Amino acid sequence: ELSMVFQFEHINLDKQNGKRKWDLKDLDPQELHRTFSKWQIELGGCGWNSLFWNNHDLPRIISRWGDDQEYRTISGKMLAIYLHFMQGTPYIYQGEE
């Protein structure tokens, strides 16, 4: 019986159909919140989510959804807090710390 999942729905929120994976559209923060909320509710009591922003195939999250110029530190903290306050196991990949 499996109880832990890796879901990639949140990673596809800024992809554009027919475009390369590096040609991204602006993220809708409300859509991100709805996606994570859905998974928190649907897995509640019967599963466990893997929480992550990056992997070796994705651009770094601060450059992708934060402001890596003027607000690099604040963006990083905000994204880390958002991820770590959810139910699940957070994954931090080398280079994200």
TrEMBL record:
Signal peptide (UniProt feature, chain positions):
none
Pfam families per the UniProt record, alphabetical: Alpha-amylase
One GO BP annotation is: oligosaccharide catabolic process
Write down the InterPro entries for this protein, in alphabetical order: GH, GH13_cat_dom
The highest taxon in the source lineage is Bacteria
Recorded GO MF terms: alpha-amylase activity
Q: What is this protein called?
A: Glycosyl hydrolase family 13 catalytic domain-containing protein
Q: Which organism is it from?
A: Enterococcus faecium (Streptococcus faecium)
